[in-house]
């Protein structure tokens, strides 16, 4: 664990440190199948409106009984994860999740203090908002980093603050309080979540345990129906989904 992560969370937490852009080194076998017919959502609704939190600390969107279950281990400060969100999220959701054939789960894999802060805020609202908030945060990741770099003294002060103040200060320095407020999460809600150190500790522990159990060493790392994929960007993942029947 790096020194910044030790500052980020009170000891004795042990956060898994993800290497951005890493990912799986091998598959456990391809999934192939005939084309799967679309599965209608409940009358008057869309599968894109169906979301929930999983026991592994992830957030799943789509048909919970979808025959194809895509899981992404992702860091909110990972540039490769941001690229997947930019290039893959829309076609994945609109072409495959909306059909009811594929469900998509993001499992946060924490790697640094800013990641902890963004992930906590993305999880602060309803499960239905997690994917959209995460995608929008990835799109603005460069700006958050620039905000921290341009105010190094405030960043250092945040990291030295008591745990119940640390992430609020970091969020303010990075511009995250205003960013999430503009997207429906009030400043009061954000501060309440960022001062809930017990919940943040639970998020971190869940991330670490899931990462260890599934041998996650980098982000993004994808699984389809429990099978680790070599590919970690949309141009490689879409053909895998299609071969499995999502077409």
**Care to count the β-strands?**
8
Over the alpha carbons, how many angstroms does the gyration radius reach? 18 Å
Mean pLDDT rating: 90
Low-confidence stretches: 1-7, 9-18, 23-27
Share of helix among residues? 40-55%
Largest sheet: 6 strands, mixed
Based on secondary structure, the structural category is alpha/beta
Number of helices: 11
Spatial shape: globular
Cα end-to-end separation? 42 Å
Taken as a percent bin, the fraction of beta residues is 5-15%
Q: SSE order in H/E notation?
A: HEEEEHEHHHHHHHHEEEH
Main-sheet strand order equals: 2-3-5-4-7-8
What does this structure look like?
The chain is about 50% helix and about 10% strand. Strands 2-3-5-4-7-8 form a 6-stranded mixed β-sheet, with helices on one face. It is globular and about 55 Å long. The N terminus is likely disordered.
Summed up:
The chain has 247 residues and is an alpha/beta fold.
Secondary structure blueprint with pairings:
Blueprint: H1 3-8, E1 19-20, E2 51-53, E3 59-61, E4 68-74, H2 79-97, E5 102-108, H3 113-122, H4 127-139, H5 141-149, H6 152-160, H7 163-174, H8 176-181, H9 187-194, H10 197-213, E6 218-219, E7 221-224, E8 227-228, H11 234-243
Parallel strand pairs: 1-6, 4-5
Antiparallel strand pairs: 2-3, 3-5, 4-7, 7-8
Helix pairs in contact: 2-4, 3-7, 6-7
